[in-house]
Amino acid sequence: MTGTAPLALALAAQLAVAAPGADAWRRAELGGVRGLTVGPIENGYHPDVGYGSAAYGRAVREARAMGATWVAITPFGRVADLSGTGVDLTFEAAFEDNRRAVARAIEMAHAEGLHVMVVPHLWVESGGWRALMNPSSARAWARWAESYGRFARTWATVAEESHAEMFSAGAELRSWVTTSHAPSFAGVLRDVRRVYHGLVTYSANWDDVEQTTILGDLDVIGINGFYPLADEEGASEEKLLEGARAIREKVHALAELWHKPVLFTEAGYTTRPDPAVRPWEWPDTMKDVKVDERAQAAAYRALLAPLLDEPDFVGFFVWRVYADPDDTSQEAPWGFSPRGKQAEVVVRDAFAARWACDPWWRRGWGERSRKYPN
Fold first, then answer.
1. Looking at the 3D structure of the chain, how many domains does it have?
2. Beta bridge pairs of residue 266
3. Domain, as residue range, for 282
4. What is the value of pTM for the model shown?
5. Distance CA 301, CA 241 (A)
6. 149, 184, 196, 195: which is closest to 18 by C-alpha?
C-alpha cells in the first residue's frame, strides 16, 4: 500500500481540480479517454476471477498494453422487473464482497497508471430493458427514485473513497430522464455530488440523448454510442464512413448546444457480418452466426476516423472485455470483445493516434476552452 500512496495523493489533487462546472473537463486536463470497459465475471459461479482478482490484474495489464488510458468498471444492482419496486445491492455475491472487489479493482487499475470510470448498471431479472422502467404512479416513481438514489450514492461513495476519476450516475434510463420525471433524477445527481467529487456523467442511449433533459447537470455528456452506420446490409466502407460523419455532426451539435464535451461511455461492434447496421443487438440472442472479424474491424475504423478529429469528442470506452481475459464463457465468439481479433489492431492504432481533444497535442487548447465558460 505504501507504494501506491503518492499516486493516490496525486489523484486526489487532480480530482480537486475537476470541481463541477461547465469547464470541469478542461480543468481536469486528462486528455482524450482511450477507454476499455472491463465487465465483471459473475463471481457467484466463477469465484476468484472477478474484479480485484489476479485474473483481473491480467486484464488491466492487457488494457495498458493496448494503449488504453482508462478502464470502466460496471458493478450491478438487481431489479425484479420494470415496475420499479427497488434496487437490490446484492448481485451474485454479497454486496460487501462486491464493494471490496470493486474498490480493489480501482486500486489495481490506478497502480497500472490507468484512470477509472465507475458505471453502476441495473440487471433486470425479468429480462426487460432498464430504459423502459415504468412505476405505476407518482408515488411509485418517488419510491423508485429514492431506492435508485441509494444505489447510486452507494457506488459513488466507493468511487470517492477509491479516487475514481469519473462516475456515471446511470445508464440507459430513458423513461426517467427524457420525461416529466427527470427532475427526480436531477436530484439523484445532486445527491451523488454530495458524496463524490470527481467528474460526473450519465450514459444516455444514442437514440434518446437529444431528448435527455439532465445534460446540463453533467460535467461530460455521456452516450452509449451504438449508432448505426448504415441502413442496409453489405454497405461499403465509404458508406460506413458517411454514417460516421453524420454521427460526428450530431456530437458537435450536442456539445455546442450544452457547452459540454461528449464522451462515448460505451461503443463497440459484434464480430459478425454487418455489425454496424444494428450494433445494439445482443450476441446472446443470436444463433448460428458467422464470425466476421473483418466486418467488426471495418465498423470500428469507420466510426473512429471522423470522431477523433472532432475537438468536442473526448473519447470512448470499448464495449467490452471481461475481468478474466481467459474466460471464454461470458459471450459467444461473435460477441463484442475485440480481444485477439482484427478490431483490436484498429483500437490499438486509434489509441496511439493524436486526437483533436488532446490538450498536450492540439495548439490553442486554451483558446478553444473559452467555449466552456466558468
1. 1
2. 224
3. 2-371
4. 0.91
5. 8
6. 196
